[in-house]
Design brief:
The model has no long low-confidence stretch (mean pLDDT 89). Helix 1 links the parallel strand 1 and strand 2. Helix content is 59%, strand content 6%.
């Protein structure tokens, strides 16, 4: 009844959705993809390959940082300290898509039902690793791994492995907390002001995760993590992001993977079908490989990452310093001023990668300035 299209990231989920749409449509499906000048964060070549393979109409856009244009818009529309930086490309792709169609399908929900994130593999692997004797883990595995050279500024496999071992020895719940937190649990105790600690009186944001993990008693670690993500991360982050970004541009978004029958079917499957031999999204990838080129399906997951780390050292450097090192920010009374200054200085000087922490602090301060001050 209305012009219909689809977001096409080049990942497994959106590619499968577009391929199935193409089978049902009498005309080429209109697809919309977004990328960055930083090639490490761009999946456009895979999106283009999928569109060509299924005969879809392909439209792509490149995001370039314009903080003064987009950040106030995001703060206004989200109305809360929303700290997922992928809201930037989501907003832009929704804006461009609305010029052509009024409804767009997407692949949201596939990861949380069919085990698509690398942290699911890490949770499983950690369970196996904890069965290794402690002295072997520390002396023969963790010691040598921590000696491997890695850069705090570059995402590499070595860095991922070292990050894995920082939490692999923990129980399931604290391990999950660590992988889902921008500010790790032990860090929050260091960065909060004494006044703020007394005001929150021991309450913790991770309590909402604990509730769902507790309800998964008796399930394997994979299904427990999937359930918790489905009831927290998916509705409170991902779906909020897409819903607000699309509605801000008068675009309707639809997520076929959220069909309740499909979610119930996925939940009924044994863990071994969703992740086989530590390979994420095993069953869904087998199906998707029949629909789109296998090289699109069987590659490392990129996710909808945003190169904010580079932007904070370049085009957005002055903006970040003006906002976070302002008097109002440093006197806010939540984060110790010395910690804010440390995060900004270390990052902009290229000493450490604090991109996610700075983004969270930035959105919090901009929210305060817009809605509280």
């Amino acid at each position: 009844e209305v012009p219909l299209g689809a977001f096409l990231s080049g990942g497994v989920d959106s590619s499968a959705v577009v391929a199935l749409m193409a089978q049902e449509s009498e005309t080429p499906v209109k697809t919309f993809s977004i990328g960055f000048e930083e090639l490490d964060f761009s999946e456009l070549k895979y999106a283009r390959k999928v569109a060509e393979h299924v005969g879809a109409e392909y439209n792509e856009f490149i995001v370039r940082p314009d903080a003064l244009e987009v950040l106030p818009l995001l703060v206004d529309h989200y109305g809360e300290p929303y700290a997922d930086s992928s809201a930037i490309p989501t907003y832009y792709v929704a804006k461009e898509t609305r010029r052509h169609v009024t409804v767009a399908l997407n692949g949201d929900g596939g990861d949380e039902s069919f085990a698509g994130y690398e942290r699911y593999m890490a949770m499983e692997l950690a369970e196996m690793y904890r069965g290794v004797p402690s002295f072997v883990r520390k002396a023969l595995i963790e010691g040598p791994v921590n000696l491997l050279p890695s850069s705090p500024l570059k995402k590499t496999r070595i860095r991922d492995v070292q990050r894995f071992f920082t939490s692999a020895n923990e129980d399931r719940l604290p391990r999950y907390h660590r992988w889902m937190s921008t500010f790790k649990p032990h860090v929050r105790a260091e960065i909060y002001t004494d006044d703020f600690k007394s005001r929150i009186n021991g309450s913790n944001a991770t309590d909402v995760l604990d509730k769902w993990f507790a309800r998964s008693s008796g399930l394997g670690v994979l299904d427990a993590t999937l359930l918790t993500d489905q009831m927290t991360y998916l509705p409170n982050d991902l779906l909020v992001k897409v819903d607000i970004a699309t509605m801000a541009n008068s675009l309707e978004a639809r997520s076929p993977f959220l069909d309740h029958k499909l979610i119930e079917f996925a939940a009924s499957l044994p863990e071994s079908l969703k992740m086989s031999r530590l390979r994420t999204k095993s069953l869904l990838k087998k199906v998707a490989a029949r629909l789109v080129p296998p090289e699109v399906v069987y590659r490392r997951k990129m996710g909808f990452g945003v190169p904010v780390g580079k932007w904070f050292r370049g085009e957005m450097k002055d903006f970040v310093r003006d906002v976070l090192l302002s008097d109002s920010s440093l006197k806010r009374g939540i984060i110790k001023p010395a910690m804010i200054e440390r995060y900004v200085t270390e990052h902009t000087n290229g000493e450490q990668d604090h991109a996610f922490q700075i983004w969270s602090l930035l959105m919090l301060e901009l929210w305060f300035q817009r809605f509280i001050d």
